[in-house]
Amino acid sequence: MKLNELTMTQLKAKFDDGQATASAAVADVLSAIEAGQKYNAYITVCEADTLFARAERIDKARISGAPLGALAGVPIAIKDNMCMKGVRTTAGSRMLENFIAPYDATVVERLEAAGAIIVGKTNLDEFAMGSSNETSFFGPVKNPRDSETIPGGSSGGSAAAVAANLCSAALGSDTGGSVRQPASHTGTVGLKPTYGRVSRFGLIAFASSLDQIGPMTKSVEDAALLLEAIAGHDPRDATSVDRAVPAFQSFVAMGVEGMRLGIPREYFEAEAGVDPDVLANVRGAIQKLEEAGATIVDISLPHTEYAVATYYLIATAEASSNLARYDGVRYGYRADEAKTLLEMYERTRAEGFGDEIKRRIMLGTFVLSTGYYDAYYRKAQQVRTLISQDFDRAFSKVDAIVTPTAPSAAFRFGQKSADPLQMYLEDIYTISCNLAGLPGISVPCGTNKAGLPTGLQMLAPRFEEATLFRVAGQCERSLA
Amino acid sequence: MSVYDKYEVVIGLEVHCQLLTDSKIFSSAPTTFGAAPNTQVCEVDLGLPGALPVLNKQAVEFAIRAGLALGCEIRPTSQFARKNYFYPDLPKGYQISQHVHPICEHGSLTVELESLSRRVRVMRIHMEEDAGKSSHLEGKPVSLVDLNRAGVPLIEIVSEPDLRSSDEAVAYLKELHSIVVYLGVCDGNMEEGSFRCDANVSVRLHGQAELGTRAELKNINSFKFIKDAINYEVRRQIDLIEAGQKIVQETRLYNPNKGVTFSMRSKEESHDYRYFPEPDLPLLVIDSAWLERVRAAMPELPAKKRARFVEAYDLGAHDAEVLCASAPVADYFEAAIEGYAKNPKVLANWVINELLREVSGDQTIDTVPVRPPQLARLVELIDTGVLSGKLAKQVFEAMVESGQEADAIVEEKGLVQVSDEGAITQIIDEIFEQNPGQVSAFREGKTTLIGWFVGQVMKQSRGKANPQIVNDLLRAKLEGQ
């Protein structure tokens, strides 16, 4: 077995036994990336010389017995909306096609402090806006499970890189399901931490109150390991929370004996449009959890039907403001030969942004405008509170909630891109979690009739990622 | 009665103060003024992708100080908001400000004018970040942007439309200026823009309840310009109304060279700022413990200090005002009082009439060579009759020159006042001998000659004779015989 095919935990064990070196791991990953170019998973692969130099330093340190970080020598990919000093950071946009970040995101600092080797920057929907990876300026990512289908989005590049073994693990970012939905479509594990658990400093903002960076891995244990490395308070992000980071790995094997798991009836109703194969797989998983000792509880999240509308009002409002800085003045794309300042702004933004970005900026600008603010933005914030309260009530009865991750398995390129509303419904099960700031995880849960993976989502109260790791770990074992 | 007297002037002021924090309001970049362009910046100030704001605690405390000084309620929770508009010196495409829930609300400031005392309500004080600076190169299709100022903390102090003349507006601004400088929250430098003002000006007929349509005069940076701009604007509005025209709500700029205001943009052209709560910053929570810590560290404010000076030192209102116009001067005076407490009035005169004359250019009250204990000693020497007022001035000048103690100068120059009656009598006798005509003229009734005799004695003694004793002895000798 090549080193790039191992989970992080397996690779670490080989490092510890002296059966593998970081240099060899980097070599295997780089040749896999070379062979896997057809997936278009990476926008930028770091210089091989730099990667090998870092790997050799770690190997030498290991031989000399120097203390090493938890991820020492592990090749990791990060979504290309996280700044890495001296490396091109594009957010999948023409606007930042040639932008070299002059500083490191906190997650990059933490990965490097833990000894990880960041091998490259993965493809994504432009500015993380999309559910299929079709909006990237750098072209769509192909799903390694079936290259005729989308890998999901917006963290499609990270999901594909993990699924195709083009790295040991990856980071994605999740604003409305952008880690969990592509994990579901590629048969990998994707975790969105509690809002505030992981610093957003250096993450190119889409919607500030919803964005959260999370691990995308080959196993639940890997997700726990990676989260431990990146989580924790950061004084440079005022929304990051000063709270101890538990040893998440210790919860993975704990089992679900005595836990109460809620099944929200609204998520399973026919009109939710869930695919029968997905439904069957989810029901099968729930049964396995029950067999493992969990109590299954019927619950209600009555405001679920408003989640998608609420999300697209809040997310676009914040995005319209967050993306105002891409104006051609200081960095990034600037339209040539504009005669006036206004023309420079208009042409820079017309030419630098793709259609989906412009659609969302216009939507967001509209909902914040005088005369519409109360009807849309304020109303959305009120509904957001109601959705959040639904979960608070549910969590007074259950430890975690189990749902499908996405309504169907991966679809074909172009199948939904002509109809934005259809595309937005891809996130119907994942969006509420972001609106309420909860942690959520997606684990592989069987396949559909065509053999494409489907996912199971678990949600827990804020800062209860440990609970997610217990349930997800049980699923992984029960469904193996 | 002039047509202008038919109208009442209504003014509300919005004052921006740059806060004297070491670092910016949302980043740790320094706030040094006058540094090379774009050097006092970090990823946050540049609006780089992924950068996030973190609120500067010192800026919050400065805003609270200003709020307490103006009798405001300090909100236990306030909120930052984004004000969205495009401009090259606004790096993020939005300014982080406060909108619906500002940090301070409902204060007031009482302004004393010669003929009236006016309580001006302060609607709110909110915190926000300054923008950068654009320079447009003459004749070239190029603009330059310096972002050193981007992110410098500001408070905006917004008054209700309670002011009724340009004089009141200037008095309000001066009082506010002195308060923020006293508080140590703003350097008050108007030329550099650390203290700048927008004025909302309208007119209405006396007795009319509703407000007239206002014009907003933007970014005026001197007391004189404020006065001139408001006066011009008032006349312009009244002239328009009298000519049967309507006032348009608009933003206007003042041109100090021409002494006129001109339209910058009308209400229709004004931005829709699309304010919404800043999602990158949590609510600002100020608990009572924090508030009390800030309150306990508050310096005494000018109005209170003036009243105390009048009361405790028996000073006139004018002297108290001059001394309290700047905290370092008031502190100097009180330090001198500590050195010699018996005659605050004379001490005040010396500070106001002599010492402040030495304070100009590079010389500040804190660097002037005559330190408070030294001035105190000089006044003591006058009080105890060692020096006459005239001699004291010579000594003071020498103290400024050399930085020496008064006693040392007195000794070195032999400037001790002669109060020895024998010595003075001897001089008087000599003068009588040399000027018998003047003596008889005095005795025949020309008593105004007393001044001439005093002058002669002082001259003879080279100013050292104690003038009171000279006077007493002369009268005794001239009138007694």
Main β-sheet of chain A: number of strands, strand sense, barrel status? 11 strands, mixed
- The gyration radius over C-alpha positions of chain A equals 21 Å
So how many helices of chain A? 15
What is the strand arrangement across the widest sheet of chain A? 1-3-2-4-6-5-10-11-9-7-8
What share of residues are in beta strands of chain B?
Answer: 15-25%
Spatially, the strands of the biggest sheet of chain B line up as: 2-6-7-10-1-11-12-13-14
Short description:
The complex is a heterodimer of chains A (480) and B (481). Chain A has helices at residues 8-17, 22-35, 48-64, 106-113, 156-163, 180-186, 220-230, 276-291, 307-322, 341-352, 355-367, 374-395, 420-424, 431-436, 465-479; strands at 42-45, 75-79, 117-122, 169-174, 189-192, 212-217, 260-264, 295-299, 400-404, 440-447, 453-459.
Describe this structure in words.
- The complex is a heterodimer of chains A (480) and B (481).
- By secondary structure, chain A is an alpha/beta fold.
- Chain A has a domain at 3-251: Amidase signature (AS) enzymes (Alpha-Beta Complex).
- Chain A contains 15 helices and 11 strands.
- An 11-stranded mixed sheet of chain A has the order 1-3-2-4-6-5-10-11-9-7-8, sandwiched between helices.
- In chain A, helix 8 (276-291) links the parallel strand 7 and strand 8.
- In chain A, helix 2 runs antiparallel to helix 3 (48-64).
- The longest helix of chain A has 22 residues, at 374-395.
- Chain A is globular and about 65 Å long.
- The model of chain A has no long low-confidence stretch (mean pLDDT 96).
- Chain B has 481 residues and is of the alpha+beta class.
- Chain B has 3 domains: 3-293, no CATH class; 300-413, no CATH class; 421-480, Arc Repressor Mutant, subunit A, CATH 1.10.10.410.
- Chain B is built from 15 helices and 16 strands.
- In chain B, the strands form 4 sheets. Chain B has a 9-stranded mixed sheet. A 3-stranded antiparallel sheet of chain B has the order 5-4-15, with no helix packed on it. Chain B has a two-stranded antiparallel ribbon with strand order 3-16.
- In chain B, a hairpin with a 4-residue loop joins strand 6 and strand 7.
- In chain B, helix 5 (302-313) packs across helix 6 (317-324), helix 7 (327-339) packs across helix 8 (344-358) and helix 9 packs antiparallel against helix 10.
- The longest helix of chain B is centred in the middle third of the chain and has 20 residues, at 223-242.
- The radius of gyration of chain B is 30 Å and the shape is elongated.
- Chain A binds chain B through residues 81-83, 89, 91, 96, 99, 101-103, 105, 200-205, 207-209, 235-239, 317-318, 320-321, 323-325, 327, 329-331, 341, 345, 365, 368-370, 373, 377, and chain B through 43, 46-55, 82, 84, 86, 88, 91-94, 143, 145, 272, 274-276, 279-282.
